[in-house]
Design the sequence.
């Protein structure tokens, strides 16, 4: 089965991403973020940010969701979209580290849908990360 992106599955993924914020481990920033991958076979894979007392080891919601997808056997060609949700005034953009990870674990044309529950902005991975360092550069 292949799921095409439509407003119904996007709304479900947004809901799942906001639910995931409840499991965010954010004792330092108190800034919960949720994410949800929509797979082409119709599964929703959530993630939330997980912080650490050694702050640099903290993991963003997007990476938690992407790593979870890998562990469930989904590679870039199996993924339809990634939703990022934060209950903020302005929409929360993915950080640079997550954009770099997206290059390996999503395709360049995968939509990344960022929302605060009131409005959404969608960018492809390629739009989020122009002139990027990728696996191709390792071949040079
Ligand atoms: N964070 C995310 O999880 N995703 C984003 O898109 C931006 C930032 C997290 C990292 C850290 O746990 C907290 O938000 C504050 O930076």
Sequence:
């Amino acid at each position: 089965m292949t799921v095409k992106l439509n407003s119904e599955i996007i709304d479900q993924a947004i809901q799942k991403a906001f639910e995931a914020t409840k499991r965010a481990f954010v004792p330092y920033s108190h800034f919960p973020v949720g994410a949800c991958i929509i797979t082409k076979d119709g599964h929703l894979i959530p993630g939330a940010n997980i912080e650490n007392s050694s702050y640099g080891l903290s993991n963003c919601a997007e990476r938690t969701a992407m790593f979870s997808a890998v562990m469930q056997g989904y590679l870039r060609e199996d993924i339809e979209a990634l939703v990022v949700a934060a209950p903020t005034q302005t929409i929360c953009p993915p950080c640079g580290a997550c954009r770099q990870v997206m290059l390996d674990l999503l395709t360049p044309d995968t939509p990344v849908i960022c929302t605060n529950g009131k409005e959404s902005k969608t960018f492809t991975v390629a739009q989020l990360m122009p002139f990027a360092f990728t696996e191709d550069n390792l071949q040079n």
The CA atoms of residues 91 and 119 lie 8 Å apart. The pocket of tetrahydrodeoxyuridine is lined by residues 26, 29, 31, 33, 49, 51, 58, 60-62, 84, 92, 94-95 (CB under 6 Å). The longest strand covers residues 79-85. Residues 7-20 form the longest helix (14 residues).
